[in-house]
């Protein structure tokens, strides 16, 4: 009797494993699939796909697969059969058919971290409602003096710690500055709730606007606040770090950027804060931001799944299969960009460049906070290039894990330049 249970258990496990293996190999035989390799049963090719590499490259996995199978190939990633796209046209097709043919499909672990009402995770009508509110609010707030004041103060407060001229771990500093802002906002929410309880007058700012929306549930309100004010702190800090890194390797671009901001500063009174009109004059600054997004690849790929059988040219994507549009491969496609591995902000003066790159996504899920992030980073760069010079370590560079991290934390040697602008005496 004692021996029966292990035998039954072994038989059950054998049947389950056999079913999984048959199902795994059957998925490879669907008609009109692109070429590719599904890797090991259950594990697929996930380990190779996630292998760290320099973020300003496509990595060995994509290089080898594109060379062998072409720019669209099949694989098995994160536990699911997957179509991987390194093709610009197909990526646009995926983005433009959001909620029609394709839908967001991130791993369940991300929903547990971000919450089901996060703009990144939400789908359908919930996403439309949340995004509509976010776009409306951001569109009216990005040019306000209050936002510029907040963005400048955050930049200045981070740089105040650099006065000693000791080496600065920039990546860590950037994230900690945003963390301090997060803590401040959380305290403001708590105080606002207490004030509303006792019936004090509303101030009419962002938090009051969000809290007054009767159509939003409490969970949706929390997600809106986190997404707009706090959710992007990691990507913004990473992008700022990439810009500092690339400018450190491109003295001509840095000099051109400095000249643009010197011209803006000369037209202002001493200590006068930046405003929306100043930002509109920062054309080269915006080019630098977009080029850092292209070269640094803050977002390497997106998670999508097919809602039905999808035919694209001579390829059939089975319903339920994952689809990964890979931005990195398009960003470094020599057929689309001249000298694609070169950090060259001037390429963005050509309007065609913006049609070949999707630094902030596209379609119905285009990042609603893209312009807000650009304004924040532009304010930071204004004070950085006018007040400091810096050096990066020769053996430091950005790595994709798949999200960007610096090999040595982007440790900078900082030196002030003359008079510090934007500081109150």
TrEMBL record:
Matches recorded under SUPFAM superfamilies: Cytochrome P450
Binding site for heme: 367
Localization terms from the record: Membrane
MF term (GO), any: monooxygenase activity
Signal peptide: none
GO biological process, one term: brassinosteroid homeostasis
Topology of this chain in the membrane: Single-pass membrane protein
Pfam families: p450
Keyword Transmembrane on entry: yes
Keywords: Heme, Iron, Membrane, Metal-binding, Monooxygenase, Oxidoreductase, Transmembrane, Transmembrane helix
Names of the cofactor(s): heme
Domain of life: Eukaryota
Keyword hit for Transmembrane helix: yes
GO CC annotation: membrane
InterPro entries in UniProt: Cyt_P450, Cyt_P450_CS, Cyt_P450_E_grp-I, Cyt_P450_sf
Similarity comment: Belongs to the cytochrome P450 family.
Protein name from the UniProt record: Cytochrome p450 90a1
Chain's gene name: CYP90A1_1
